[in-house]
Design goal:
three-stranded antiparallel β-sheet, Butyryl-CoA Dehydrogenase, subunit A, domain 2, alpha+beta, 666 residues, 11 strands
């Protein structure tokens, strides 16, 4: 490969072997080899290679190709007998990175929800045909008027004991299901979240398996109105839809009844634990941190490589133009986000492991850790998606004008991850859900209870001053994060208590304390990520050079986070001005330490050009040749002279232009 000289030098001068770091990220040498083998199967696949480039597609073609790829890849993994979810992900990532999968929600929401909340009979009835793609489903919760506030959903399912059926209705325009993916044109079944009514009483939100399209010709069922909601900022290949019901009847066993039940006579039997219905949502939120990490990592790869290749503006008159990455201001844009990408990757892996462990306990009827996981998943979902959305846009701008072009690949990455700030729970509400749990935990700690796990920091004795010195060791930095998080939780909890003592209801007091609660949740989440990152980079058995590079990144993540929220750390005097100065200076020092390893750190993510699809993030660094080839492929270049020249421009230049506009009649 003819590699750009600057990139060749960057890789040669790195302090560690990027391949060894790749092996840490993907669980060992064997898994790295397996991942690359699966990716290469896709890169060489003639069917996948036959599609037009994503940047030259219209909306209908985006959707059509997304459906074809989804179906083909599902068949491929079955033919290859690939049952491991991670390996299946590697195949889909290689075939359609940052593209949409119209069958994705069928597999990660529709089927798992039935498996978790359905009876054995319902699982046999729906899951087996769903796994064979005899029926296609999605998850219909969000409505036109309500999204994150699930209790406010308006769709109704009223039980009719005479016929042993539920009558499903969308009583208002705002009750229309709106936004669920795959609902517009793809699926014929939905998991419908609706208010359950029996014997004249509402029992709250329950899940129903509802057919919405014919299995013969895919037309909407009588009493069902369904369609696509139209063009969006991104997600061109996903058919987000709307759905309304008019006295639509479904059988009694359409309600998922593993936990809550409705007897034939309409008697309602509630679940032993009301939180069991949230299992699917917690699972998706647990996955989002990893999704954000991968998107942020890809944008970091592109921006870092381009910054190493791009040379701009001589520092000394007549001197050589330096690499853009040598500018400290460029390092400030990239390196903290590179550190965040690593932090979120490790945290995302932990979240999936924790979900699997706690979900196994739930299957055995033990729900004691569900609340902990729900709060953590909500907070980290918001924190990681907010950081990633803002961060990728910052990286886009760090690429100058080329970052605005689809040729860079960054707009596509950003447009497909930024919806994570609102789907599966709007971020502010997610922070508040996390904060409500934190306030309860604070009350437990204040009353003398010993907290366990990560929340145990609320039991720590309150220190008045940090012992942080110029060594800036991670123990002291973590202590600063935990101290600040505990203080902000106390501020929010105390404010609520004062307002309630003044006669305000809990709900009103919570609303009047919402901003401090969000601050507390963000502080808690970042403290968690810092501690998790530190625990990973200090594992035993790691290659010493790799360990040093990761420890430097981890320290940058910690000190840069304090710099961003410096007021919160110094407000109570825990950090003083001198210590703040040490942290600010250390941030700049860490930029210089990371600089020689920057390209190796992004190479370690191991994203081939076929996945990045970026002219400026190419492994070989030949960005200008790639940009020229991209420009020549523009659909406007199929003709040297456009029709608009003859219809509009030439008449304009000749002074012969007229507009055929109907004359308005008075």
């Amino acid at each position: 490969m003819d590699v750009n000289n600057d990139l060749r030098k960057e890789r040669k001068s790195a302090s560690f072997d990027s391949e060894k770091l790749t092996e840490i990220l993907y669980n060992g040498k064997q898994m790295v080899r397996r991942r690359r083998f699966l990716q290469n199967l896709i890169f060489q696949d003639k069917y996948i290679k036959s599609f037009t480039p994503w940047w030259n597609r219209g909306r209908e073609e985006h959707y059509d190709i997304a459906v074809k790829k989804s179906v083909y890849l599902n068949k491929l993994v079955q033919d290859l007998n690939i049952t491991n979810n991670v390996e299946q992900f590697y195949i889909r990532e290689a075939a359609a990175c940052q593209e949409n999968n119209p069958l994705g929600l069928h597999q990660v929401m529709f089927i798992p929800t039935i498996e978790k909340q359905g009876t054995k009979e319902q699982i046999a009835k729906y899951v087996e045909p769903a796994k064979k793609f005899k029926i296609l489903g999605t998850y219909a919760q969000t409505e036109l008027g309500h999204g994150t506030f699930i209790r406010g959903l308006e769709t109704t399912a009223t039980y009719d004991a005479a016929t042993e059926e539920f009558v499903v209705n969308s009583p208002t325009i705002s009750s229309m299901k709106y936004w669920p993916g795959s609902m517009g044109k793809t699926c014929n079944y939905v998991i419908l979240m609706a208010q359950l009514y029996t014997k004249g009483k509402c029992h709250g939100i329950h899940a129903f398996v509802v057919q919405i399209r014919s299995l013969k010709d895919h037309t909407p069922m009588p009493g069902v109105s369904v369609g696509d909601i139209g063009n969006k900022l991104g997600y061109e290949g996903m058919d987000n839809g709307y759905l309304m019901f008019n006295n639509y009847r479904v059988p009694r066993d359409a309600m998922l009844m593993r936990y809550a039940k409705v007897e034939k006579d309409g008697t309602y039997l509630p679940p032993h634990n009301a939180k069991v219905a949230y299992g699917s949502m917690v699972f998706i939120r647990a996955l989002i941190t990893g999704d954000c990490a991968r998107s942020l990592a890809q944008a970091c790869v592109i921006t870092t490589r381009y910054s190493a290749v791009r040379r701009q503006t001589e520092i000394r008159p007549g001197g050589e133009e330096p690499q853009v990455i040598d500018y400290q201001t460029q390092q400030e844009k990239i390196f903290p986000l590179l550190a965040a990408a690593y932090a979120f990757l490790f945290t995302g892996n932990m979240m999936v492991q924790e979900y699997n462990r706690i979900n196994a306990d739930m299957e055995k009827g033990r729900f004691d850790e569900m609340q902990v996981l729900h709060a953590l998943a909500a907070g980290l979902k918001a924190f990681s998606s907010e950081t990633t959305s803002n961060g990728i846009d910052k990286l886009r701008m760090a690429c100058g004008g080329h970052g605005y072009s689809h040729a860079s690949g960054i707009p596509k990455i950003w447009a497909n991850i930024t919806p994570a700030c609102t789907y599966e729970g709007e971020n502010t509400v997610m922070y508040l859900q996390c904060a409500r749990y934190l306030v309860k935990q604070y009350a437990q700690a204040a009353s003398g209870h010993t907290l366990v796990g990560f929340m145990s920091y609320l039991n720590n004795p309150v220190k008045q001053r940090s012992s942080l010195n110029d060594s800036l060791n991670m123990v002291d930095l973590i202590e600063a994060y935990e101290h600040t998080a505990a203080r902000l939780i106390k501020v929010a909890a105390t404010r609520m208590q004062i307002l309630m003592k003044s006669g305000m209801s809990m709900e009103e007091a919570r609303n009047k304390s919402a901003v401090p609660m969000v601050y507390a949740a963000k502080a808690h989440c970042q403290a968690f990520v810092v501690k998790m990152f530190n625990s990973v980079v200090n594992r035993r058995g790691m290659d010493p050079a790799v360990s040093r590079a990761l420890q430097t990144l981890c320290k940058l993540y910690a000190v840069y986070g304090i710099n961003q929220r410096l007021g919160e750390f110094v407000q109570d005097g825990f950090l003083n001005g001198q210590q703040a100065g040490l942290i600010q200076n250390k941030t700049l020092t860490l930029f210089a330490e990371i600089r020689p390893d920057a390209v190796a750190l992004v190479d370690a993510f191991d994203y081939p050009d076929e996945i990045l699809q970026s002219c400026i993030g190419r492994y070989d660094g030949n960005v200008y040749e790639a940009l020229y080839e991209y420009a020549k492929m523009s659909p406007l270049n199929k003709q040297d002279v456009q029709d608009s020249y003859y219809t509009t421009l030439r008449p304009l230049m000749k002074g012969e232009l007229t507009f055929d506009v109907p004359t308005a009649k008075l």
